[in-house]
């Protein structure tokens, strides 16, 4: 397994202060504590019963934060086999994680054809420029009144089916929280 070059901590919920290793992998930029705290302040602290997809899991910080705050089912999708193995190792150290969190080594876009999900977390590698594609792919995978969180190097306009609920710029990262448009009567 690749060596950890750092760590991030889960900031809230039952696994608060638990450390997550950050592997030395190209393009891996874990979401910082402040942005994660902001996201879960926007969403609310209790995600009890939510189904969550972390489509570009990396360190797992976003998806594990959701699980720590009560999400009932969290899928962590990571294309790098070493990062996926590291995530599986992390699950063995978090009480109850194995029952609610699933790690898959695979393609994020294939996972986005699943669902429905109450929350989809998108933090694709910035150099890949998959932001619009991932956002559009997330729309049909959402449950009614679902949410999509996206990190990108620029501010993005939502595709049909979503509207921007919140946005913040933190350093070089634009954090977007999109809400599914309400279907008509």
The appropriate CATH architecture is 3-Layer(aba) Sandwich
User: In one word, what is the shape?
Assistant: globular
What's the tally of helices?
6
Looking at CATH, the homologous superfamily is Vaccinia Virus protein VP39
Give the strand tally: 9
Count of all domains: 1
| Largest β-sheet summary | 7 strands, mixed
Fraction in beta strands: 25-35%
Describe this structure in words.
This protein has one domain: 3-Layer(aba) Sandwich (Rossmann fold), CATH 3.40.50.150. The chain is built from 6 helices and 9 strands. The protein has helices spanning 33-43, 61-68, 81-91, 97-100, 108-111, 131-138, and strands at residues 4-9, 19-23, 51-54, 73-78, 101-105, 117-122, 142-152, 162-170, 173-180. β3 (51-54), α2 (61-68) and β4 (73-78) form a beta-alpha-beta unit. The longest helix has 11 residues, at 33-43.
List its traits:
globular, 185 residues, single chain, Rossmann fold, seven-stranded mixed sheet
Summarize the SSE layout with pairings:
Elements: E1 4-9, E2 19-23, H1 33-43, E3 51-54, H2 61-68, E4 73-78, H3 81-91, H4 97-100, E5 101-105, H5 108-111, E6 117-122, H6 131-138, E7 142-152, E8 162-170, E9 173-180
Parallel strand pairs: 3-4, 3-6, 4-5, 6-7
Antiparallel strand pairs: 1-2, 7-9, 8-9
Pfam families: Cons_hypoth95
GO molecular function, one term: nucleic acid binding
Keywords: Methyltransferase, Transferase
